[in-house]
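[step 3/7] fold_predict: job queued, chain A
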Amino acid sequence: MTEKNLVFEKIFFERWDKSDKRLTEAMVELEVVSKAIRALRADGKISLSDKNPANFIKDYLRSPRRNENWPESIRKAGYTARQRTGAGQCFEFVALPKGEEPFPDDFLPTGEELEHVAQTLSLPIATREILRVDEPSLAQLAVKLFLVEQLFATSPTAVQWGLQEVEHLQNNVKLRYTDIDAVYQAIMHTSQGLEVGAITVEVKIGDPIISEQIEQQALAVLSDEAFQFCIPTILKRFSKGEIIALHLGVIRRSDITEDGKIVLGERVHSLKFRFQPELPKI
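[step 4/7] structure written:
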């Protein structure tokens, strides 16, 4: 059992009503996490730091053993957890559907991705040499090779939406409640005329994709009056030489619920990129 499991269990069972078999409160704030860590450390049970509770569940979810490590006691009670951000929140205990893993990766390859050759001749040799296997490098590579533009150009659904233009705006966008690996501007021609929206790109190297992060990214850009819609997009290196890009459905402000949440749509279109000439480091 990891030290973080002891923290999860302490918080969970302090809120667990044994008689009714229910939680009295599901949302867990950052300060609650810090307080639990301090209490367990004072008892000599853990050595975790309480200085950065914002990363408490974020780092937990990155582990490839996150499902295996999830406390059996909480699993048997029928609960898992989901990351929450903003307003001092850390995570929320949510019901675990019977038979499902606590932390599924919702965007695994299906094997039906169309394969597309991405030329790399336009990359200077020096650029190829300094490439690193990390998310900033992959995000920059996507810009230089127009991977996001190619994804949408080959998407029949995006064509039906009336997508007219995709333009890169910025990488590594840091906002109050979320970070976005890359933001593109998208222009669609609809029955209402030209609409300007944003494409948010989540870039991953091996780590699981956390749906809540993508939801927060969409909410963040839709809070900007400059954008009328958002198209969440994912770019991930699943294994050496395998880069998969996919985009989800369009999200508009009208899709935001009264409690300020959205529901991500299904994947709409995906490509598996093969680089030619090959990029040995990728």
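[step 5/7] annotate
The chain has two domains: 3-95, 114-276.
The radius of gyration is 21 Å.
exit 0
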